[in-house]
Design brief:
- There is one protein chain.
- The protein is mainly beta.
- The chain folds into 4 domains: 98 residues, Immunoglobulins (Immunoglobulin-like); 90 residues, Immunoglobulin-like, CATH 2.60.40; 105 residues, Immunoglobulins (Immunoglobulin-like, Sandwich); 124 residues, Immunoglobulin-like (Sandwich), CATH 2.60.40.10.
- A 5-stranded mixed beta sheet has the order 2-9-8-4-5, with no helix packed on it. Strands 12, 13, 15, 16 and 17 form a 5-stranded antiparallel beta sheet that branches.
- InterPro entries: FN3_dom, FN3_sf, Ig-like_dom, Ig-like_dom_sf, Ig-like_fold, Ig_I-set, Ig_sub, Ig_sub2.
- This is Down syndrome cell adhesion molecule-like protein 1.
- It comes from Leptotrombidium deliense.
Amino acid sequence: PPKFEEKHKTIHAKRGEIAKLPCDAIGDKPLTVSWTKDGKPLMKRGIDYSYEIIDLVTDRGMISELIIESVRRSDNAEYKCVAENEFGTDQRKIVFVVIEVPSQPTNLKVKESWSRSASINWSPPFDGHSRISKYTIQYWIHKASSRKLHKITTTNAQTTALINDLKPGQSYEVTVIAENDVGIGEASESVVFTTNKEGKVLSFVFELIVIITSEPSGPPMDISVKPAGPTSIKVSWKAPPKDQWNGDLEGYYIGYKAVGSNQPFSFRSEVSTPNKDSTYKYEFFLTNLLKATSYDIVLKAFNSAGSGPQSHEMRVKTLDGDLPSAPNAFVVSSTKTSVTLSWNAQENQSARAPVIGYIIHYQLENDDWRQIPVPSNSMNNDGLSKSSTYTFVVDGLNSGMRYNLFVTATNKHGEGDPSAIVVAKTGGDKLLSAFLGGFNMPYYFQPMFVIPIVSAVVIIFIVLVVTFVCVRRLKHPVIPDERFHTLNSKQFAYTGTTQRYVDFENSKPLMNESGNPYPFAYSTMPMDNGENPRKHSVNTLSTPIHRHSLNKLDDDSHVYDNPQ
């Protein structure tokens, strides 16, 4: 008689997959195999072609296989295959289980709501023949212009949850989603509820407590990542919305890890003062990375209370080659509507991919930057990988205006570092162009770089010399030499005589003060008829007298020469 070696079997298949239910019967020929589903016989092919039965005769008997093209929930059943020949029958039972994501939860209700929280519950859905691992509660402000979604996840299969951090007197909409090992099911029907209102004083106190003790409630926004070289990545972002700061932001954490790595994210911090302008773009360069390696990047904002939620992952790959070096750009000349710009290609390109073009960046002062791609076929030199000087005319400019310009080189890996910014003014002023551009000179020899440094050095030198002289005078003051004094305002008593002149020998030296080796001239002294002599003083002379002058006296006085 026919026989099945395995009488019972349970087969699982996910919804939408192809499923095969085999029956391997052993027995003498002729041998037939028939199928039933939950006791109802099956034809060789389904009416809607949802299944097909294929029989294959073997040396041992027959293999009959039921193939379900796309598994549906209705295929979940008990199947039997019956083998029969002239000697008897045997059967094999197959329990086919269709596993799928859970259905949507039902009977969602708001059990109770307060001013800043609400309690909800719901009924568990069909689990899709796989245990429900968790529920996700989603809620948002009802009829808001922008639907900002908030999420709460339960740690197990509980069917109740408490929603916190709500606003008083605000209408919310909430829904629940179940999840199992297969995936995430459909969301339940949403329910609308309104929180209670509270007094202004209580509301202010609560908001103050939240601000002081809460970390940021939102991640950074508008995140972009791009390779900046073979070992570096440029990350840029904007701050979270102001109402999610919960105080002043102190900075950001930038996390990164290689794709496929089992290690957690490594974080670097960027401490910065938050810009009040919501459009401000922050930038950070991750360096010392692996060459030609893909990385996942995440960001978190932090304040004094801690760090906020993590952003979604951004993937980027470092370059597998080096970017070009920065060119050395300078202005050659200018006209009313154009500027002639030249630059030198760097010589150290041997280890890098050849330069395939340049990009000229120019900006009208206090305006947006513009770019002019310069491909290799438009250059006045053959090839761009050699060390040469290139020239390009930027035209269509405004007359009499100042422009900022710089140049970047490109190769197959991307755009390299920029040159130093040079300034030019349209209008054909060759002297100004030469001053601003410095002709064909390195930037450290250009006048705009040299003149300020030389001026500073000269000023410092002058200050040092003046300081040295002043300090020296204070330490060593000039003391007059006593030898240069004759009489020190000394008064003499008058001794009258009837002679107008007194004869004395010419060879005899004049009397002087003790210790004074130098002679001095006679002094002049007025006299009043021998009565009531006036006080007189002797002028101190420090040099030999070549001419004597008499003080002009009153008409009734006489002047007498008195040798001392």
